[in-house]
Design a protein that fits this description.
Elements (H helix, E strand, L loop, with lengths): L11 H4 L9 E6 L8 H10 L26 E8 H4 L8 E2 L22 E8 L8 H5 L5 E3 L5 E3 L10 H4 L6 E2 L6 E2 L5 H4 L6 H5 L5 E5 H17 L6 E3 L12 E5 L19 H27 L1
Parallel strand pairs: 1-11
Antiparallel strand pairs: 1-9, 2-4, 3-4, 5-6, 7-8, 10-11
This protein binds iron/sulfur cluster (2 copies).
The site of one iron/sulfur cluster has 14 residues, from helix 2 and helix 7.
């Protein structure tokens, strides 16, 4: 069966061969109400029996996992920004001032570089994007990665052979090989729970409803309304990330409302499915091969003359 490799796609599950299927389900993560409690990280680990991450504290922030990985299917990013930027998007989020400058022995203390308003924290619970065009799935040689009837992307660890092709294919750096195990792991969007009509564990545990689970079309409408609300309140810099079906991956099944540039949260600004250029690459390879054959034939005929 063939399926499209890029561009907007109306029926993701249908494109993957599911004839009668439920609506596409996904996540809308509204980072403007994330308080960084990490209940989602804990709930994900508990429900899915994900082993601990190594617990190597970075010493740089309250973010102790650093990034998504084979044993970190949810990652709560803590982004600390200096005061100058806080005025752009002041939501009354928790913040703290800089430490009082120590007085110099012979005069007043140095003024802190971070100025009056101190620091603001941006928090965001990151996860697999369950892309419309999932390169991880397209390159998997064993069929371990598959598209579910809900339009989500799931890896079946029991038939993963650990080749690792999916790891560089993912434009977001999500899927990963677990050291000591050798197989690839990532968020399943709680396939076992949603099949029973339950909410994924992370969304269920989120106390502020920053992580919202539901039908993707409805979530996109809700996100548009929330963005309008923030703009009305004068919040500068708010934007949706992954909600546009015209983007490089055809839109994400898990998308976000961010308060700053994606790079600030460690997200790629313009992700593109790595299989997008496959067709044109093969066309160029075919043209080059034909050219070589032509040169070979011409030199053979020229030699005979
Ligand atoms: S974010 Fe990466 S791992 Fe998740 S579906 Fe997309 S390509 Fe696959
Ligand atoms: S949907 Fe399930 S597997 Fe995915 S991050 Fe949430 S709890 Fe973990």
């Amino acid at each position: 069966m063939s399926h499209s490799l890029f561009g907007p796609l109306e029926d993701v599950a249908g494109d993957a061969g599911h004839e009668a299927h439920p609506p596409r389900m996904g996540f809308f993560t509204d980072t403007s109400v994330c308080i960084g409690c990490k209940a989602c990280e804990v709930a994900c680990k508990e429900w899915n029996l994900v082993p601990e991450d190594g617990l190597s504290l970075t010493g740089m922030s309250y973010d102790n996992t650093g990034a998504l990985g084979a044993s970190t299917w949810r990652h709560v990013a803590f982004v600390e920004q200096p005061a100058g930027r806080a005025s752009r998007t002041d939501l009354g989020m928790p913040g703290m001032g800089p430490p009082e400058p120590a007085p110099a022995p012979d005069g007043p203390g140095q003024e802190s570089e971070s100025g009056e308003g101190g620091v603001r924290w941006l928090m965001s619970s990151d996860v697999c994007k369950h892309c419309t065009h999932a390169a991880c799935l397209d390159v998997c040689p064993t069929g371990s990665l598959f598209r579910t009837e809900f339009g989500t992307v799931v890896v079946q660890s029991d038939i993963c052979n650990g080749c690792g092709y999916c790891v560089p294919a993912c434009p977001y750096g999500v899927i990963d090989i677990r050291p000591g195990d050798g197989r690839a792991f990532k968020c399943t969007l709680c396939y076992d729970r949603i099949g029973e009509g339950l909410t994924p564990a992370c969304a269920k545990a989120c106390p502020t409803e920053s992580i919202q689970y539901g039908e993707l079309d409805e979530l996109r409408e809700r996100a548009g309304r929330r963005l309008g609300q923030l703009e009305e309140q004068g919040v500068d810099g708010a934007r949706l990330y992954g909600a546009d079906p015209e983007d490089g991956v055809g839109g994400d099944g898990a998308f976000f409302l961010l308060l700053d540039e994606p790079e600030v949260y460690g997200l790629p600004p313009d992700p593109v499915v790595t299989t997008r250029d496959l067709a044109s690459m093969w066309r160029h390879v075919g043209a080059a091969a034909l050219g070589l054959v032509g040169v070979g034939v011409a030199s053979f005929l020229g030699g005979r003359r």
